[in-house]
Amino acid sequence: MTEQRRGRRGRVAASAPQRQVDYRNLRSPFPTMNAISEDRVEALHEAALTILEETGIKVLHDEARTFYEKGGARVSDDMVFIGRDMIEAALATAPRSITVKGGAPHRDITLELGRIVFQPGAGCPHATDLDRGRRPGTLRDFRELVQLTQSFDVLHMVPPLVEAQDVAMNLRHLAMTEIQLTQSDKVPFLYSRGTPQVMDGFEMIRDFRGLTDAEFRAQPWCYTIINTNSPRTIDLPMAQGLIDFARNGQPSIVTPFTLMGAMAPVTVAGAITLSHAEALAAITLTQLVNPGAPVCYGTFTSNVDMKSGAPAFGTPEHFSASLVAGQLARKIGLPWRCAGGSAANIADAQAANESQFALWGCLLAGATITIHSAGWIEGGLSISYEKMITDLEVLQMVAELCAGTPATEGDIALDAIRDVAPMGHFFGAQHTMDRYQTQFYEPLVGDWSNFGTWTERGGIDASTRATGIWKRKLAEFQPPATDSDRLSALEQFVARRTAEGGANPES
Amino acid sequence: MTEQRRGRRGRVAASAPQRQVDYRNLRSPFPTMNAISEDRVEALHEAALTILEETGIKVLHDEARTFYEKGGARVSDDMVFIGRDMIEAALATAPRSITVKGGAPHRDITLELGRIVFQPGAGCPHATDLDRGRRPGTLRDFRELVQLTQSFDVLHMVPPLVEAQDVAMNLRHLAMTEIQLTQSDKVPFLYSRGTPQVMDGFEMIRDFRGLTDAEFRAQPWCYTIINTNSPRTIDLPMAQGLIDFARNGQPSIVTPFTLMGAMAPVTVAGAITLSHAEALAAITLTQLVNPGAPVCYGTFTSNVDMKSGAPAFGTPEHFSASLVAGQLARKIGLPWRCAGGSAANIADAQAANESQFALWGCLLAGATITIHSAGWIEGGLSISYEKMITDLEVLQMVAELCAGTPATEGDIALDAIRDVAPMGHFFGAQHTMDRYQTQFYEPLVGDWSNFGTWTERGGIDASTRATGIWKRKLAEFQPPATDSDRLSALEQFVARRTAEGGANPES
């Protein structure tokens, strides 16, 4: 739900009607855009199948290779050659609709083509804000960013917004999972950094949600991101993650990271062909492990600056790659993830424009999940608190569009148009009076005052206003209500596992 | 054309292949988005016809009322009641495709559904930049802004970017038209501020383009913007403009300015119904004056802040209104204009986000001309030089999307994918080497350097970099080649008319 409207004196007007728009269950109102023709989509798909059959994927993980081999693949050393029959069988069993459970019914999300799900920026080693500056991410930053994620309905899943670099790697997963469960009731994330860490995560979630083992495995309660190593490699932790999550009925979001000209061909069609091949291989593994296991298709494809090798985002190529990936996602019918984001170094007009341009690529591509949709900057090296807020404004406005445009006779307002004289105005018309309190979206950070008023108030720009907003949100933050026994049990688990030495990441 | 690529040392690499993307002739690659169902589109159209028939339009202009009456309308005092037969007849004669001539063949533009034409911000009383601050617009500002408009292929028409407030009203049209003709070869604009000013403008354009009267009238060589006075009024200069331009075969871009809750109903459907009715009335007048006269449909519909009355742009309501207008434009089949823009007071993330959000509304609405697409700020009270540059980046990226995504076998790059080993890279692949110099869009103002490099270079944000860009563009500016006789003739015309006292605006 959107925030309650505040009257002119800042109080919530008790009797004023409340504008209520659902920001949680978003169904895309946008048409999908085709960048290439249907027969070229077929050609890309065929090329990907040919790559898998003839050129193969390097799979470092023994058990994964065994799964592929038992499924009919040809294996030679660590190269796996997957036939199209296996791919088609996997695409036939992979579910088209995945409901991932949160900590409360209204936090459950459904992943399927046609839905829109937003995640803020993720995977950033640094955090930055206008108060404290740029710094390596800490657990405190992660806690705050999870609280901010919790505070906005238009963010639907919790990602690893920032790496808690001040917590040792053997304990970080414990700390970050604990925060996700206690500071948010939204769908939580687990890293795939080896089975021991994943099992810790599963256990924490299972117990905190009050589930039996069977109940946990019967439905999705969390997710992971699987990046293949482009080109054409699935490494140990990624294969282990695909296996562990599939075994336990939890979704992997398969995401080849294919930057054009770097780890992928320099063309959109080439990069997406490679990405598609790798994604199909990863999806197939999940279905070999557990036919019917939930899995999302995905890509993270953009271009680089060919002079410096620096990744670029929010470019025409990023947009086009998203569109082509969307066409392939619709061909195979699976929910899928795409990404927004910016390469800018500060939350300025470049950052805003690149991120929004990338977002529209995802929306018109029909992406189910748009990751990095708020806050992501420096090509993912930092997450900006201020940009999270200014990006959220755009996401909220997209959610408003999802609510649709009514055009009843009452909306057409023929009577009002008749009643207001030429060159009159509608401010006082009954039609207006009946509606004005709830008619329009009220901005989160946008300031519509005139130049004089704005100057008198200090001439404050959007990012600076955003600082005030995230601070206020954190100051007012109330964690979701939690069963105190489960809270204690969680704390005790973390303490015990910490004393035991946690679990080192595996690679 | 895009700018020539510069090699690492800043020189144009003489032998390097040049990236060439046509930014001039843009055909929309975007699907159109329907906000309401077809039968509700019909309902809005019907309601507009009913308003025109039964409630009427106030027409202050005697000759205009005569045209309507002779065409079959019922006239009572200054109220005109237009029957649907007249509207349908007008829509049947209004051309679906309008070619407006510039000063050179490559500057001609075609206005029809499916094309994309961009204009920068217009109608602003102030100009602002980070160097000189905010000030009432001057002729110097107008000259600079026209030069900037000329400097970017992705801006297709010249609008009245800023009012030259330091030139008296009886001479301003002469000065601003002279600048448009000498500093640019793009399609010029004339104000509709009374017949004498319009005739001055026609004469200047006719003679500068080297045309006879008949040649001038036979094709469009300029355009005007006609704002009806909502609700339900066409005032004197606007009616005179419709008549003068239609008589002379020059297009009016009909643009009701209908802010929801102010001069229009508070609902999207109501505001667009009113806008549609007024636009139909204005279009009908042009066809009564001269059946087949070029005319564009249009609207400028957004919402206001109901607490302050301040106009808002780049809102969900602005976006939705654009979509509905687009559905009506497609119903009647005419090229049409829509608008972008922002209510922000400074070129910050709000300004960027609002403008880009509004732009996407126009693109998905299938707008032919998107006005205010670069630089427009403070809800139109100022044009920002810096924002013009940062907005241009987005327009250029949209133009890149118009060029399409190739997916040939060469683009799919199967051989390259085969040749690069797992976990290798494509930087040195022949496929990459053959393409990298021209493969990607190079940003105008976007900076992709990493945080360290960016900090070393001064930590400069996008708007500050934009200052450097517009300054460089102005310093390097070369006006289009002009016939020196025509230049002298133009100067003499302006001098003579000035000595004669110019022409006062009429209202």
CATH architectural grouping of the domain at 90-402 in chain A: Alpha-Beta Barrel
Average pLDDT across residues of chain A?
96
Structural class estimated from helices and strands of chain A: alpha/beta
Helix fraction of chain A by DSSP (H/I, runs of at least 4): 40-55%
Might you state the CATH topology name of the domain at 90-402 in chain A? TIM Barrel
Query: Which sheet architecture does the biggest sheet of chain A show?
Result: 7 strands, mixed
Question: Could you tell me the radius of gyration of chain A in angstroms?
Answer: 24 Å
> Which class of the domain at 90-402 in chain A in CATH terms?
Alpha Beta
So, the CATH homologous superfamily of the domain at 90-402 in chain A? Trimethylamine methyltransferase-like
Oligomer: homodimer
Tally of helical segments of chain A: 18
What's the overall geometry of chain A? globular
Total beta strands of chain A? 19
User: Any low-confidence stretches of chain A, pLDDT <50, length ≥5?
Assistant: 1-13
Give the neighbour order of strands across the main sheet of chain A.
1-7-17-16-14-12-10
Strand fraction of chain A: 5-15%
Query: How far apart are the termini of chain A?
Result: 42 Å
Q: Biggest interface pair, residues each?
A: A-B, 128 and 128 residues
